[in-house]
Write a structure and sequence with these properties.
heterodimer, A: 122 residues, mainly alpha, 77% helix, rod-shaped, disordered C terminus, B: 309 residues
Chain lengths: 122, 309
């Protein structure tokens, strides 16, 4: 069971890469959520027909669906960010308790930073 | 296409109708017109019949919103999404693919939070994102359908105005032969498509869920005829104006019908999201996410990530 030393360091590096990737995934959900939410700013001319009051019958149910989607994507975005934070903290906690694992983790992180790969899975 | 001139057309129709009602003989004799009260009422109401349509939303006003939603679809385009709802040339997101791949890494860790993270977040990630993609596609599809409805309604009311002007011109020249029958294309504007919803398999992968959603979209250019009811085939201005009014009411009714179809389909989706099936579209927050500020021993202990196996 590689619970210490270089092998643990390698395992921590894999966890660290997961955390790095989750940040990028979070960015995608953040962008998707904002793109959906931004339609609020552009809806006026599309839904307003001067002939009748307000935005018409489609708007109510459509905007209800939009609000649900914004909420769902926002939750996913937040979960990804918090999980990435927890993973990074866990990596630090393991590394603090094992110098050899910490050195191996550091070596692998340096290698990744030297390459253009921020931790993408092969 | 001369929709922007709709109210000018209405004014022209009014003038032509008055001229037709007066009749060439009467006007040449310079006597008071013998326009009946019914004709006068029909002529007077012409601008008010067309005015509501002159302020219909501009179909182009939907474009910025659909661009936003196309961008959102691109962000969520993980392998497995329904490709009918994005351009064939749109790339799938390689970034999102890293999440399912994290399963291999997490499988090496023995703690409860690692297992919870795998089973409740990573395994259902792909099917859940596929379902979220369908939701955004449904949101965008409704806009596409709405835009198409207004585009067709504009074309239809413009066609109706031109048809009326042409008929009245011929009536004045005494060469009109009854051929009233304006085809309203707005009726075929909205198309409903079924979209599959998927569920995660405990072992990874996904299967079809016992549920599908209806995604609205643009109807194919099938022309649906909405012919006016049978009119008496007479040559009077009153008959022509009644036929025109009947079609304007019909156009209005068809817009209402199309909108109700959109409301019904969107309501169905909102009901799904208000039911237990909402879980198919959401990812439960992993226990790990709640441990971002946990003590080191909790993060690395059996309730955290545990041992690296």
């Amino acid at each position: 069971m590689p619970d210490s030393g270089k092998e643990l360091g390698a395992g921590l590096h894999e966890l660290w890469k997961v955390a790095q990737n989750f940040e990028r995934v979070q960015d995608e959900f953040y962008a998707a959520r904002n793109a959906v939410a931004d339609t609020v700013l552009k809806q006026d001319k599309a839904f307003r027909w001067d002939h009748r009051d307000g935005y018409g019958p489609v708007y109510r149910v459509w905007s209800e669906l939009r609000a649900e989607i914004v909420s769902i994507l926002g939750d996913t975005d937040q979960s990804l960010g918090l999980t990435a934070d927890a993973l990074r903290q866990a990596v630090r906690a393991y590394a603090r308790a094992d110098d050899e694992a910490a050195a191996e983790l550091d070596r692998r992180q340096q290698w990744h930073r030297g390459s253009d790969d921020p931790g993408r899975f092969a | 296409m001369s929709f922007s001139e709709l109210m000018d057309h209405a004014e022209t129709i009014q003038k032509l109708a008055r001229s037709a009602a007066n009749g060439p003989d009467r006007s040449s004799l310079d006597i008071l017109p013998a326009v009946t009260a019914e004709e006068e009422a029909l002529i007077e109401e012409i601008p008010s019949l067309y005015r509501p349509f002159s302020t219909m939303p501009d179909p182009a006003s939907f474009d910025e919103m659909t661009d936003d939603l196309t961008r959102a679809l691109g962000c969520l385009a993980i392998t497995g999404v329904d490709r009918r709802f994005i351009s064939a040339t749109s790339p799938l997101s390689s970034t999102l693919e890293t999440v399912p791949h994290a399963d291999v890494t997490l499988a090496d860790w023995t703690g409860d939070a690692a297992e919870n993270f795998r089973s409740n977040f990573i395994v259902p990630f792909r099917p859940t994102v596929c379902n979220q993609f369908v939701l955004v596609a449904a949101l965008k599809g409704a806009l596409d359908a709405h835009k198409e409805m207004w585009a067709r309604a504009r074309a239809d009311v413009d066609k109706l105005a031109h048809h009326s002007m042409d008929a009245l011109t011929l009536l004045i020249a005494n060469t009109y032969e009854w051929d009233w029958g304006v085809i309203l294309t707005v009726a075929g504007a909205v198309l409903a498509t079924g979209a599959a919803i998927v569920a995660a398999l405990p072992t990874g992968g996904m299967s079809l869920a016992a549920l599908s959603l209806t995604v609205l979209g643009t109807g194919t250019p099938v022309v649906v005829s909405v012919l006016p009811q049978e009119h008496e085939k007479a040559m009077s201005v009153a008959h022509l104006l009644r036929a025109m009014r009947s079609d304007i009411y019909r156009l209005h009714a068809e817009i209402t019908r199309q909108e109700q179809a959109m409301v019904d389909k969107l309501t169905e989706i909102n009901k799904v999201l208000g039911s237990v099936n909402r879980d198919l579209f959401t990812l439960a927050r992993p226990a790990l996410a709640e441990m971002a500020n946990a003590r080191a021993e909790d993060l690395t202990g059996d309730t955290g990530l545990g041992a690296n196996d």
